[in-house]
Amino acid sequence: MLTLLLAVVTLTARAQDPVQPQADSGRKPAAAPAPDSGRFRITPLLAPAYNPEMQFLIAGGVLVSWKSGLNPLRVQRSTLSSTISYSTTGAINVSTSLSSFWHEDKLRINADVAYKDMADNYWGVGYDAAVDPWNGDGTTHYHRQWFKLAPRVVWGVAKHLLVGGAVEWNHTIATDVNPTMAADSDYLLHGNDIKNNGIGGVIQYDSRDVAANAWTGTYAALTAMSFGGFMGGDNSYQTYLLDFRHYRTLGRHGRTLAWQLKSRIGAHDIPWTELSLVGTGYDLRGYVEGRFRDRATLIGLVEFRQMFTRSDGALSRHGFVVWTGAGALGADLPHLRGIIPNGGVGYRFELQPRSNVRIDIGAGRHSSGVYFNFTEAF
């Protein structure tokens, strides 16, 4: 599939930087960045791109960041990113993500809000259902409206250890359903108008130096969610997300090897809309999102990230990444099927301290795509 990145236009609105010491011409390349003062920043951005679901699109957004607390030099920068995109297929996609740090990083409040109104595809459940056709046809097409609100709050109970809770509301309406999909047993089980509401618990170990763009450290998390009628939902089911990531600096600041193992498992009466996916803009980039879905998934990724250096030895705002990975899916972890390969390259531009915008070109089996986002994939 042909993919074309047309351009990236960034418009930066910042308060004047405080005076920093001049770089020492004799210092080693990629010396540690100067401490971040923590002032409020806002950066708008506009970028055309292409992805397998929406095809050619224009995405506009804004990144807002700040630091809280009595000593902003000791806490991480909170971020609020929001994007809206419109594609040549008439698709609308709105996404907002909050990652915030309070009380000297003892309290973290995160939230995701998303809305999609778009032509979509449903292959069915399982690896075999998604093998053919590769990019969708008259047997997979339908129209989807989807909304999701998912706040999470965690509190530090020990060094690097945080526990807390999560809530989620999501709603899917499927229309213009094709005859093949209308006869699918998994679709028939839950229908075309599905509301799910759930509550759950979160436990995290997080030793990353910066959560938004780690150079060192480990992140391990378990999120267990229970959905049911007790919150007004239509279905009773559970999901379990296990996410392990490790980051290692290779030789100098700004050169990082990152890897991730992630598994999501659904249990009981989980509807077709909430099955676990392999191939999204945050894991195996390049596949149509929703093509590979089942109750359980396992994904592995390895990514090399490098920011370039300037002539004075300081880090440039430009960089690149290269990644490879694979995934599998099945009814449960002991019965995973298929190997779903993936790889790609990406460009990075530091919009704000340790907050990059990413342009990723990913490819898989008979599929590819270009992705634009404010945050790293993991």
Layout: helices, strands, pairs:
Elements: E1 9-10, E2 41-51, E3 55-66, E4 78-87, E5 92-102, E6 107-121, H1 127-131, E7 141-158, E8 161-175, H2 179-182, H3 185-190, E9 193-206, E10 217-227, E11 237-249, E12 255-268, E13 276-278, E14 292-294, E15 296-309, E16 315-330, E17 336-352, E18 355-364, E19 367-373
Antiparallel strand pairs: 1-2, 2-3, 3-4, 4-5, 5-6, 6-7, 7-8, 8-9, 9-10, 10-11, 11-12, 12-15, 13-14, 15-16, 16-17, 17-18, 18-19
Number of domains as seen in the coordinates: 1
Radius of gyration, in Å, reads 21 Å
Mean pLDDT: 89
| CATH level-3 fold name | Porin
Distance between the termini: 25 Å
Assigned CATH superfamily: membrane protein fhac: a member of the omp85/tpsb transporter family
Low-pLDDT stretches are: 1-28
List the secondary-structure elements in sequence, H or E.
Answer: EEEEEEHEEHHEEEEEEEEEEE
Class by alpha and beta content: mainly beta
Q: For the report, how would you describe the main beta sheet?
A: 17 strands, antiparallel
CATH class (first level) name: Mainly Beta
Strand proportion, as a percent range, falls in over 45%
| Architecture per CATH nomenclature, i.e. the level-2 architecture | Beta Barrel
User: What oligomeric state do these chains adopt?
Assistant: single chain
Report on this structure:
The protein is mostly beta strands and 378 residues long. Helices cover 4% and strands 57% of the residues. It is globular and about 65 Å long. The longest helix has 6 residues, at 185-190. The chain has one domain (9-15, 37-373): Porin. The strands form two sheets. It has a 17-stranded antiparallel β-sheet, with no helix packed on it. It contains three helices and 19 strands.
